[in-house]
Amino acid sequence: MTFPEPEAGGFPAASSFAVSVSLRRVETALVLTVGGEVDLVTAPELNDAVTAALTEAPALLIVDLTAVTFFSSAGLAVLFNLQNAAGSATTVRVAATSVAARPMAITGADRLMPVFATLAEALSAGHPAEPPSEHGDASPSGSNQ
Q1: pLDDT exceeds 80 at position 118
Q2: Helix (H) or strand (E) segment spanning residue 41
Q3: 20 near 36, Cβ under 8 Å?
Q4: What is the pTM of this model?
Q5: Are 109 and 41 in contact (CB under 8 A)?
Q6: Host H or E run for residue 64
Q7: Which comes out higher in pLDDT, residue 4 or 25?
Q8: Per the CB 3.0–4.6 Å rule, which of 26, 68, 91, 93 could disulfide with 122?
Q9: How many helices (H) and strands (E) does the chain have?
Q10: Distance CA 119, CA 64 (A)
Q11: Is the CA virtual torsion 22, 89, 128, 70 positive or negative?
Q12: What is the pLDDT of residue 131?
């Protein structure tokens, strides 16, 4: 088997495989927005951003992956580690297109942290400390009477 030679410029530099991360408050949530490619090269940058987010001890952390164009197992590892590090103190939600949602579903990560199609859906899913009751009752007692 022969492999093609790299083009005259060689292989792309690691910096061309970019990921962008930003952290901001949206309503009562801390949102970590991720864009670009999440792979073995860029996952450490995502992990650093996750660590920074957790130092703020948010009640709700939403990882917005809707701008991600590639999501590898290295990205999944970051999410699994995030869920473990968050413990019960921080509710973790993910907003993702099929690029990230599909690998999460295949590996079962979507059973550990809910995945939403948009950031708006993840934000409107309710406050983590007050899940909606089965019957839509908003009373503190949870009674339907």
Answers
A1: yes
A2: none
A3: yes
A4: 0.77
A5: no
A6: strand 60-71
A7: 25
A8: 93
A9: 5, 5
A10: 6
A11: positive
A12: 43
65, 96 contact by CB (below 8 A): yes
Going from the C-alpha of 40 to that of each of 14, 54, 76, 105, 113, the distances in angstroms are: 11, 22, 11, 20, 22
**Secondary structure of 97-138 in the HEC alphabet?**
CHHHHHHHHHHCHHHHCCEECCHHHHHCCCCCCCCCCCCCCC
Residue count of the chain: 145
Which amino acid type is present at position 34?
Answer: V
pLDDT classification of 28: cutoffs 50, 70, 90: confident
| pLDDT value for 127 | 65
| Lowest pLDDT segment from 26-30, 51-55, 128-132 | 128-132
